[in-house]
Amino acid sequence: MVSHDSHAHAAPQGFIRKYIFSLDHKVIGLQYFFLALVAVFAGIFLSLLMRIHLVWPTASLPFFGEIKPETYLSLLTMHGTIMVFFVLTTAPQGGFGNYFLPIQLGAPDMAFPVLNMLSFWTTFLGFLVLVAAFFVTGGAPLHGWTGYAPLSALPSAGPGEGLGADLWIISIAIFCIGALMGALNFITTTLDMRAKGMTLMRMPLTCWAWFVTAILGLLAFGVLLSAGILLLMDRNLGTSFFVPLVTVNGVLTGHKGGSPLLWQHLFWFFGHPEVYIAILPAMGLCSQLLSVFSRKPIFGYRAMVYAILAIGFLGFMVWGHHMFMSGMSPYTAFAFSIMTMGIGVPSAIKTFNWLGTLWGGKIRFSSPMLFAIGFVSLFVVGGISGPFLAQPVLDIYLHETYFVIAHFHLIMGVASIFGIFAATYYWFPKMFGRMMNEPLAKTHFWLTFVGAYAIFMPMHYYGMAGGLRRYSQGTEVGWIHKLAPIQQFITFAAFITIASQFIFVFNLFWSMKKGEKAADNPWEATTLEWTTATPPPHDNFGGITPVVHNGPYEYSVPGAPRDFVMQTDAPVAARH
Amino acid sequence: MASFSTTATLDEPQVSRGNEGGAPPIFGGGDDGRAGRGLPNYPTRLRRARLGLLVALTPVLMLFVSFTSAYVMRQGLPTWDTRTNQLVHDWIPVKLPALLWVNTLVLLVSSVGMELARRQTKVRAAAVSTQPAGPAPAGAEGKMPWLTMTIALGLLFLLGQWMAWKRLAASGFYVATTPSSSFVYLLTGAHAVHLMGGVVALLVAGLFVLLRRPVTTRSIVVDVAGWYWHFMAALWVYILCLLEFAR
Q1: Rounded (5°) CA angle A111-B63-A174
Q2: How many Cα atoms are found within 13 Å in the side-chain-facing hemisphere of B201?
Q3: pTM of the full structure
Q4: In B, residues 96-135, which contact A (CB 8 Å cutoff)?
Q5: What is the ipTM metric for this complex?
Q6: Homologous superfamily, domain B42-245
């Protein structure tokens, strides 16, 4: 964290210093973004294989051949791990947060640029180590992204639990270190590098969301790292932190006395905040976009800030709701249940304020706005099944079914992804100096929006009817076999939805070269990134130190010459 | 379309909370501390580095909090004994080598040396921070006896910990012997790795003298490494208490 020579670094000249080992937060943000783009297609590819296998269980698939139950578990483990860590944690925070947090705060760079560069390359290394697990003897691990012991702690427990599982744990540990370095930068930058006049309560809600997300990461990733270290010791040094007296194929393992529940506690103490690490940046962004494209101030700015803080705080109190199945005391379960329901309150405040922002606004249905509205929709639909699962009595029935899959994919997966899409369409002009193609963007939106619902809504019914998760096929279980048409429908919906993502990729790369030239402030927004050139110069503001006079959401201010007042414009109060 | 007044949702004019009126906030929100355009001034860099350290210590703390909770939970767990078919406790309290107390003394003395080194460089940096940054003058400015002493004592502590491990193994306690010995190796090892980070930071500070980096830059490294070092000393006392008194 040594800050010598930091933010005064001159614009680099050579290709390697400029684009590879860059200290510029904007380049690092793009590196994170493209890493997430590669990762998301890897993750989608794995889910596609799983969907095909679920409908055509005997079909031979590329790279994996005939899918055995163990292979299916490998696919779902790697799908979950890649998506949660290298997409949902990487793109919204590492990508867009890195690029836009300093600019929105009026800072020339992050507080510790060298650390920022190390943070990206550490994350990148983590991704390589994870993918390497596919290519070692035994293949990728089987234990799911949650890595439950003792399966994850015993190399003899299955193919993929050998070197593959070691690589998985090491990858997660590397990722933790990278994420911690990133969080350190986000927090220090937010607290110490805001421009003159940028008080905390004038920060855009995106910045608030990135800031609180960084705090969550700071508190959560250290715990996951500790769990990973203990697990590696169990696997390689013969200790018994997580492994009880257990046999594998009738042979005693030599471990005794460890507690699988200890792993679950440590993992979910990280795992639940991780859900908010994925979705808080999308919430912040959504608040921003609804205000910009409704041409109205955000409804209840302070309430939004306090709701973000409340969600962050409560996020650490509810990890036990992932463990209702573990035989925990009903009193403990009751406490976790109540706390979980409690998160509904700040979430509802946010939803209410989003609707309040839309109400009576002069709404512009541009593509970023469509994705922001889509986010609200998915957040509500995915969130409403939360209170069902928060009740231990219902959770014990639903926990091992597709109902949970539907719940967390809608709220943590697709809603966050919609945040990433909205951010891409919104900030693309600033990042690349050109507009994305709007008709293609809208086509992409409608196909993805309808497709996401077509995939995940039926999973609720499949789960309630008893369809079990993690089963590679249901042909031999009577009541599951009867539900096969639902799985077929989901798979066909997935084909169309996945195919439509190529519209996005085409639009992304085509628009970089051929898109219409963007003005400096194409959306007529107020925050600082729209005051600077497009794309922003090396020190973000071309030698000017911005001074902030207004809040971030001064739209349709009576008496103002335009329907928006930039944060750097003369104070709105002085106009009256 | 319903005409919801847009002004209704506007909070009170937020300009009053800006810097034009009241006292400047503690962090940011005002002067970003840049002396003109370019390198931020010395107090700003020092403040920023200290804040960064404070933030960086949080996950370190969480790591050891997490280990502690695992320690407490694992200590209370029984296991099934296949010979007697009963639940038994497999937690055998470890008799810690007396050498650990000597090591503790070494680390605490090094912390005192660290504090003297930190104050020494800070005084020097304050003296030159008003002047334009340039190469540090050679001679007395470059001599850092306290820093050298701290590094030496830090390395001595690490050597002592290694010898304590050897003694522990000689008395029959290996990593996997009993859960309590697993935790002894885990906690001492994790602490040693973190302390090595401190040693590296101090070596970098020493290297800055040879490289004639500005004394302000060196002072920031020593200051931050100093607070980190104190944290490591306090953490070690905590770990020793945990292992000794919560066996």
Answers
A1: 65
A2: 24
A3: 0.92
A4: none
A5: 0.92
A6: Cytochrome c oxidase, subunit III, four-helix bundle (1.20.120.80)
